[in-house]
Amino acid sequence: MSSPLLRVESLCKDFGGLEAVKDVSFEVCEGQIKALIGPNGAGKTTIFNLLTGVLAADAGSAVFEDHQLLDMRSHEIAALGVGRTFQTSLLFDQMTVLENVMVGHHLHGRANMITAALRIFGASAEERQYRKVAMEALERASLGDLAGRSAAALPIGQRRLVEVARALAAEPDLLLMDEPAAGLNMRETERMGEIIQEIRDSGVTVLLVEHDMSLVMHVAEEILVLDRGRRLAEGTPREVRSDERVLAAYLGEVAD
Ligand SMILES: Nc1ncnc2c1ncn2[C@@H]1O[C@H](COP(=O)(O)OP(=O)(O)OP(=O)(O)O)[C@@H](O)[C@H]1O
Ligand SMILES: [Mg+2]
After folding, report:
1. Which of the four pLDDT bands, split at 50, 70 and 90, describes residue 3?
2. Nearest residue by C-alpha to atom 19 in ligand 1
3. Three-state DSSP class for residue 1
4. pLDDT-based confidence at residue 110 (cuts at 50, 70, 90)
5. Ligand nearest to the CA of 225
6. Starting at the edge strand that comes first in sequence, how are the strands of the sheet with 205-209 ordered?
7. What is the 56 CA–ligand 1 centroid distance (Å)?
8. CATH number, domain with residue 38
9. By CB distance 3.0 to 4.6 Å, which of 11, 105, 110, 199 could disulfide with 169?
10. Residue 198 sits in which domain range?
11. Which protein residues have a CB closer than 5 Å to ligand 2 (ion)?
12. Spatial distance between the Cα atoms of 72 and 74, rounded to a whole number of angstroms
């Protein structure tokens, strides 16, 4: 396996006494699909928010290439090549599929999504280039045919893919995906798995948060398991699947 592209050490985040992320360390190697799993409230989305400058960490380190992400702002992190998709759908319903993806090319963090949306209509000199990058990203998510459709008309399965295309349009080296298969049926989930593998094959490293275990076990090379903010286990799908601490954490969730 190649060298780490992202190295997270002793990451901590507390929300008024709730230890949402407690002393979490892990690495993501270049070219890898790594999964981050755990029961509801384990701290997965919080980790993505810390890595993308949406939230400030209380302690720890997150080095991407040679850059300390925890010292940087969202737009700087995006410009560096760290992209993300969101757990809840964030499409602009008034815009077409293509325009939504063009926003990704301008996107400098979630805070500026509206500004980015407005900007794409003004930048005529660069617009053709934006369209080209966005079209390529749509093709990678097998959505080329839908470019001119209104985003409002799309079913959830296609909305999820548009979000993936939008993240790809920012041309990331590392893509953080937060539950890309949420709300998808089995067929759509399988297709999402293929697309995640194609993204990796195109040279993008993937850190995947996902509750669909068949998807995780199928695409991830390595899995980190969190429970209540803490690192519970880490290993290959086979190792994690048979780890008693992991089974207990998930059984606890079912029992709750
Ligand atoms: N901004 C916030 N303010 C206060 N508490 C928060 C905030 N964000 C998350 N939390 C809490 O931190 C804990 C971890 O939440 P997080 O969203 O990271 O979990 P998760 O692993 O992504 O869960 P899920 O699988 O349900 O998406 C939860 O107890 C949650 O309620
Ligand atoms: Mg979450």
Report:
1. confident
2. 41
3. coil
4. very low
5. 1
6. 82-85, 174-178, 205-209, 33-37, 222-227, 230-235
7. 14
8. 3.40.50.300
9. 105
10. 4-255
11. 44-45, 87
12. 7
| Cβ of 121 below 6 Å from ligand 1 | no
Query: Between 38 and 89, where is the model more confident?
Result: 38
Pick from 1, 168, 162: nearest CA to 89: 162
Q: Residue 192 phi/psi, 5° resolution?
A: -60, -40
pLDDT exceeds 90 at position 122: no
Residue 127 one-letter amino acid: E
Compute the average pLDDT of residues 130-147. Answer: 91
Res 111: pLDDT: 44
Q: Alpha-carbon Rg of the chain, whole angstroms?
A: 18
20 Cβ closer than 6 Å to some ligand 1 atom: yes
Cα 142 to ligand 2 centroid, rounded to whole Å: 26
Single pTM value for the model:
0.91
Nearest protein CA to atom 7 of ligand 1, as residue = 15
158 Cβ inside 6 Å of ligand 1: no
Q: Which atom of ligand 1 is nearest to the CA of 226?
A: 21
State the average pLDDT over residues 21-41.
97
State the Cα–Cα distance between residues 201 and 230, nearest whole angstrom: 31
Residue 233, SS3? strand
Ligand 2 centre to CA of 126 (Å) is 35
pLDDT tens for each residue of 199-219: 999 999 999 999 999 999 999
Q: In what order do the strands lie in the sheet with 59-64?
A: 18-29, 4-15, 59-64, 67-68
Distance (angstroms) between ligand 1 centre and the Cα of 41 equals 5
